[in-house]
Amino acid sequence: MTTDNSGAELLVEALVRHGVDTIFGVPGDTGVMLYDVLARHTGHLRHILARDERHAGYMADGYARTHRRIGVCEASSGAGAVYLAGGLGEAYAASVPVLAITSDIHRRSRGSGAIIELDQEALFPCSPAGPTPGRSTDPTPSPAAR
């Protein structure tokens, strides 16, 4: 399925490989590469457009509850990531499996005061039961992602 080694391509491949067939979200400027890849994989992964990111989080929660599988939502950085918090908080409180994917500004723009810059790691701290979220600083894919 891979046509390039971009992070977006590897992400979509990993989602499909793990049985994800639906993602809820709103296209944003920092997620353009992801949406380009999603457009090439409509046979494997369906994108459902939410009115805004708040709805995407709740839609992923509802999907997970009704389909008994992980719900996936996507948002761009900044306010998009903040808007996911309500739906993710609801899912977390009810132990519903939801994966949130957020994009970020370019590394060279960090600390520049970009309007959509936000410390997403502080906004979504890891739980003791879950994996540690992180930001990749290495542009090469990990061996597991290849």
Question: Overall pLDDT, averaged?
Answer: 78
Strand order of the largest sheet: 2-1-3-4
- Distance separating the two termini: 11 Å
Poorly predicted tracts of residues: 127-134, 138-146
Please tell me what the overall shape is. Answer: globular
Number of helices: 5
Fold and architecture overview:
- 37% of the residues lie in helices and 12% in strands.
- With 146 residues, the chain is of the alpha/beta class.
- A 4-stranded parallel beta sheet has the order 2-1-3-4, with helices on one face.
- The protein is globular and about 40 Å long.
Task: List the defining traits of the structure above.
4-stranded parallel β-sheet; alpha/beta; disordered C terminus
Brief digest:
The chain is of the alpha/beta class and 146 residues long.
Topology:
Layout: H1 7-17, E1 22-25, H2 32-40, E2 46-49, H3 53-67, E3 71-75, H4 79-93, E4 98-102, H5 120-123
Parallel strand pairs: 1-2, 1-3, 3-4
Helix pairs in contact: 1-2, 3-4
